[in-house]
Write a structure and sequence with these properties.
The protein has helices spanning about 15-25, 35-40, 40-50, 60-70, 85-95, 125-135, 155-160; strands spanning about 5-10, 30-35, 55-60, 80-85, 100-105, 115, 120, 140, 150-155. The chain is of the alpha/beta class. The protein has a single domain (about 5-160), classed as 3-Layer(aba) Sandwich (Fructose Permease), CATH 3.40.35. The N and C termini lie far apart (about 30 Å).
Length: about 160
């Protein structure tokens, strides 16, 4: 299975994703799936500069990612998938792409989002998408860095907010 972890992080590529998570996951490829980033050469260039030596980085849109996974392009890779919203992960799963687990790292409190953890705020659609992923038997957990050792399941986060 190419994907080792899928992470939802509004900032996509930054020090925590390329340094701390890299040390734990040892991916062969970082994959950012984002329409805006994939169509902006300046953003792509700056993201690629941050990748650790010896790793690849793909910054592509959702359709291209699904096509490439289905074609087996990443079958011999370990992929750390990073997206801004859980809907993209749900779309990949619904397209038949295997995602072993989903980490929710950082989503800022803005717009209709309300806080669920110290670093994660969700709107109704994001919460619904995470619940749909979990309903498919895929673990969804909240953890900012792997060094925090404070992985909390979606179920526990919802219980803490009086939701289920």
């Amino acid at each position: 299975m190419p994907i080792t972890l899928a992470r939802v992080d509004q900032r996509l590529i930054h020090g925590i994703t390329v340094n701390q998570w890299n040390k734990v996951l040892h991916p062969k490829r970082f994959m950012v799936i984002d329409q805006e980033a994939s169509s902006n050469e300046m953003i792509k260039a700056s993201m690629r500069m941050s990748k650790p030596a010896g790793t690849g980085m793909s910054i592509i849109d959702e359709k291209k990612a699904i096509d490439h996974f289905k074609a087996g392009k990443y079958d011999d890779h370990t992929v750390f998938l990073i997206v801004k919203e859980p809907a993209i992960i749900l779309d990949l799963i619904n397209a038949g792409i295997e995602v072993p687990k989903v980490n929710v790292g950082a989503l800022f409190e803005e717009g209709d989002r309300k806080p669920y953890t110290k670093r994660v705020a969700l709107d109704d659609k994001e919460l619904s998408d995470l619940k749909a992923i979990a309903a498919k038997g895929i673990p969804v957990f909240f953890e900012y860095t792997p060094d925090d050792n404070d992985e909390v399941s979606l179920e526990d986060v919802l219980k803490g907010k009086g939701e289920d």
